[in-house]
Amino acid sequence: MMIQPKIRGFICTTAHPLGCYQVVMDQVNYVKSKGQFMGPKCVLVIGASTGYGLASRIVTTFGAGAKTIGVFYEREADEKRTATAGWYNTAAFEKIAHQDHYFAKSINGDAFSHEIKQQTAELIRKDLKQVDLVIYSLASPRRIHPDTGQVYSSVLKPIGRDFTSKTVDAFRKEVKEITLSAAVEEEIANTVAVMGGEDWEIWMDFLAKENLLAEGVTTVAYSYIGPHLTYPIYKEGTIGRAKDHLRMTAQQLTKKLQNLHGKALISVNKAVVTQASAAIPVVPLYISLLFKVMKEQGTHEGCIEQIYRLFKDHLYSPHGLGCDAEGQIRIDDLEMQEAIQEKIAALWPKITSETLTQLTDVEGYCDEFYRLFGFNAKNVDYEMDVEAKMKIDSL
Ligand code: NAI
């Protein structure tokens, strides 16, 4: 079949297998061009199929020669639908890794469940014995609690009062005003239950109990802070509360990992286009402006550039982790540079539907959005018939 993008709001319901292959290959080539470093040996990536988790898997494999197990929740193709992008990404990743003789196996299912944790433990025990790095990179709209069966849905809302701001429909090139109503207590608690640190802690406790964590183990979860402009919807909103909880969980986990001389860390990453960030109101407009300003400064980065820096310059640097006062690694340093943020603050009020394409890089935003699903990749003929069904080697 011929596969074309079908965009519905902030998601694309199709994905292109050859395009995803190319996008993954581009990331592999980036890492190879930057060179190898002394890094982790056996890595578990939870949320490994797209965005920051996929980039972490690529960097540890091709940058440090690590063996990886990736956990994710993706859908295979059937008669009517293509697979999800994360499925194709993983098929591509494993193919490329295996060609280069790297160990890479995957587990597809709900990482919040006991069953998937159990399956992962068995695979680690069989093939890796222990892991020396656990990356926690889940982004999910809901979580079923593994003990109670309660379903928690996260919301992206301000706290305390309603918030009105500009947002963009990037594909229609329309800037609109949006008012987001303040979250009620239950919504805050639900968002923390989904995107906070509880599940990360359950994973680490379980792996420790099963003796699957190596001496000196490191675990890292990803967070975001962003500028004042997005504080009401991000840092000071429901998702920000979940990130606060994640940060406290890191401190808790570091204490628990002391007997292994291990540590739990938070890396604060830059805003990039992923399926998760596209869903947050206001943020896509900010990202479009950020891209414009950072590209002009020559400091623009995507997931792979960020994560390569995280590993090479922080996590496995001979010069130490380089954390901020709160103990977090800040690879959002370039995004948060004063000159960049001053420019953004000055341009923000001037953005309208009329000035959008001139003042922001909304085209770059859309291009990256398409690439998330394997569209707009170089050297791919989108007019050609392709087989939507594709196996992941290890599944
Ligand atoms: P993403 O949407 O690209 O990736 C999410 C991953 O989680 C995918 O591999 C997906 O399969 C997996 N997943 C979701 N639900 C699952 C479940 N129930 N079981 C197993 N796997 C599941 O997200 P992105 O943007 O890479 O986010 C990862 C982390 O990075 C999040 O904590 C996010 O807050 C953080 N972050 C994202 C930024 C951004 O601009 N996108 C900026 C800074 C931090």
List keywords for this structure.
single chain, about 400 residues, alpha/beta, Rossmann fold, seven-stranded parallel beta sheet, two-stranded antiparallel ribbon, about 40% helix, about 15% strand, binds 1,4-dihydronicotinamide adenine dinucleotide
List the helices and strands and how they pair.
Layout: E1 7-8, E2 11-12, H1 17-34, E3 42-46, H2 51-64, E4 67-72, H3 85-99, E5 104-108, H4 114-128, E6 131-136, E7 142-144, E8 151-153, E9 163-169, E10 174-180, H5 185-195, H6 198-209, E11 213-223, H7 238-256, E12 263-268, H8 275-278, H9 283-297, H10 303-315, E13 329-330, H11 338-347, H12 356-359, H13 362-372
Parallel strand pairs: 3-4, 3-6, 4-5, 6-11, 11-12, 12-13
Antiparallel strand pairs: 1-2, 7-8, 9-10
Helix pairs in contact: 1-2, 1-3, 2-3, 2-10, 5-7, 6-7, 9-11, 9-13
Total domains: 1
Termini Cα gap:
24 Å
CATH fold title: Rossmann fold
Whole-number radius of gyration? 20 Å
Unique bound compounds: 1,4-dihydronicotinamide adenine dinucleotide
In terms of quaternary structure, the protein is single chain
Q: What is the string of SSEs from the N terminus onward?
A: EEHEHEHEHEEEEEHHEHEHHHEHHH
* Amount of beta strand: 15-25%
Report the average pLDDT across residues: 96
Overall 3D form: globular
CATH superfamily: NAD(P)-binding Rossmann-like Domain
Question: Largest sheet at a glance?
Answer: 7 strands, parallel
Identify the strand order in the major beta sheet: 5-4-3-6-11-12-13
Structural class: alpha/beta
Total helical elements? 13
Unreliable runs: none
